[in-house]
Amino acid sequence: MSTILRTLRNIRQIGIKEYAHQMQNIGDTKAGTFIGADRFGNKYYENLEQELPLRTRWVDYKDQEYDPSQIEPGWHAWMSYLSQEPPTADKLVAVGVRSWELPEHRPNLTASRAAYRPYSTVRMKYSAWEPKAKPRQ
């Protein structure tokens, strides 16, 4: 949560439309320099002067229903402060799509109806209780 003065300063820097977008998506106002975008359309920002330490980098996801697995590995390393240079400036990370990578993003389906469940050949150790009630007279 930000203070009133910080919020007003950020509104002046980013504008009303971007302020509403940030409040809808991340719940806070942030103003910074655009660092780059990845192939999924996510935008990455940084502000070293006015933000708290270790909260100076953030991502603006392309989709409203975002999944943190949508961040590419190079950008994840930059967001986690494992590398100082963003993938756009680092030659080792900026090689593009590798042969083993999927061409498009596959979302993390854990805790959803589409999650993987292995087929079991083992007989169940317990059975559901079925009450036996006599009909009323």
Properties at a glance:
alpha+beta; 137 residues; 3-stranded antiparallel beta sheet; 20% helix; flat; 3 helices
Account of the 3D structure:
With 137 residues, the protein is α+β, with helices and mostly antiparallel strands. It is built from three helices and three strands. A hairpin with a 5-residue loop joins strand 1 and strand 2. Helix 1 packs across helix 2.
How many angstroms separate the termini?
Answer: 65 Å
Oligomeric state of shown chains:
single chain
What integer is the average pLDDT?
A: 83
How many H/I helices? 3
| Order of strands in the sheet with most strands | 1-2-3
SSE arrangement:
Layout: H1 4-14, H2 16-25, E1 33-37, E2 43-46, E3 57-60, H3 73-79
Antiparallel strand pairs: 1-2, 2-3
Helix pairs in contact: 1-2
Question: In brief, what are we looking at here?
Answer:
This protein is of the alpha+beta class. Helices cover 20% and strands 9% of the residues.
